[in-house]
Automatic annotation (TrEMBL):
GO terms for molecular function: monoatomic cation transmembrane transporter activity. This is Cation diffusion facilitator family transporter. It is found in: Membrane. Pfam families: Cation_efflux. Residues 11-218 form the Cation efflux protein transmembrane domain. The keyword Cytoplasm does not apply. Keywords: Membrane, Transmembrane, Transmembrane helix, Transport. GO terms for biological process: zinc ion transport. One of its GO terms (cellular component) is membrane. It comes from Streptomyces reniochalinae. It is a multi-pass membrane protein.
Length: 322
């Protein structure tokens, strides 16, 4: 995932949410709508979330240090996880609370044209933001479905913005429905029902984001296609004859660690092996450019079934005769 593409989508969402938040709070003040107040808080939370994503992207660019020799690429995962927490608490839980209060103590929506006008404006603005996120994501999604893209993306920014914008649009429709029913029936309870639905939606989205970013924080391997490219690049058929076992780990969205034990000919000299290892590293970087940190350990392959001696990635275990 390109940093520029993610940043463009974040900035578009940030601008839209700031404008919408101001409009929603003005409408809530004039109309007394709980749905408007919940949506205003939701937009503020979204704006803060986008600021967190931008901050995480900036911190991730720090140079590696002696204390952090592999750099700060995972800062983006940490801030992505913080976004899910903010969305859950400030967005979802607050909306559920406001909805409960509105149902328990309903009152008629005043000055209906304020919330309705702001909701229509917000739907248009969020649609532009959502369109930007979709456009940027399509450049990276390939043939993956949207659910697969959200699950497999190694960079958190676009999945977060996509889900936030999707949740915002659905929430706006729910808020419009709640306000509309309250106006039609004269019963303010419907405003609270709409708010409760918004809260439930935000909680679900926050949980999905938390699960996905937690997996990234724990450390995910390269995609299967990238692992196969690395395997093919390592073996030259002359000095390096096979990959005995291999590990890959994302140090950040755009930085991959590769560690592998490779088989070499038993009668090769140390100089020949060193040159073959250097050449293999170069081939890996050409095949998978994000492979920045590479450790290759030469060994003599023993067809005894004892290798690998440590847990392997799914495609690492091969039969001795392979």
């Amino acid at each position: 995932m390109s940093a520029s593409g993610g940043t463009k989508a974040i900035v578009a969402a940030l601008g839209a949410n700031l404008a919408i938040a101001v409009a929603k709070f003005v409408a809530a003040a004039f109309s007394g709508s709980a749905s408007m107040l919940a949506e205003g808080v939701h937009s503020v939370a979204d704006s803060g979330n986008q600021a967190l994503l931008l901050l995480g992207g900036k911190k991730a660019k720090k140079e590696a240090s002696e204390e952090h020799p592999f750099g700060y690429g995972r800062e983006r995962y940490i801030y992505g996880f913080l976004v899910s927490i903010v969305l859950f608490t400030v967005g979802g839980v607050f909306a559920l609370y406001e909805g409960y209060e509105k149902i328990a103590h309903p009152h008629e929506v005043e000055h209906w044209y304020w919330p309705v006008g702001v909701l229509v404006f917000a739907i248009v603005a969020e649609s532009f933001s959502f369109r930007t996120a979709i456009k940027e994501s399509n450049q990276l999604r390939g043939k993956l479905s949207w659910s697969q893209f959200v699950r497999r993306a190694k960079a958190p920014e676009l999945p977060v913005v996509l889900l936030e914008d999707f949740g915002a649009l659905i929430g706006l429709v729910l808020a419009l429905g709640g306000v509309g029913l309250a106006l039609l029936t004269g019963n303010g309870v419907w405003d609270g029902v709409g708010t409760m639905c918004i809260g439930a939606l935000l909680v679900v989205i926050a949980l999905v984001l938390a699960v996905e970013t937690k997996s990234l924080l724990l450390g995910e391997s390269a995609d299967p296609a990238e692992r196969e490219k690395i395997r093919a690049a390592v073996v030259d058929g002359d000095t390096v004859t096979r990959v005995i076992h291999m590990r890959t780990l994302h140090l950040g969205p755009e930085e991959l660690l590769v560690a592998a034990k490779v088989a070499v000919q038993h009668d090769d000299t140390a100089v020949e092996i060193a040159r073959a290892i250097d050449a293999a590293e170069q081939r890996i970087r050409e095949a998978v450019p994000i492979a920045r940190v590479i450790y290759l350990e030469p060994d003599i392959y023993r067809a005894t079934g004892t290798e690998p001696t440590t847990p392997a990635e799914p495609s690492d275990v091969k039969s001795p005769g392979a």
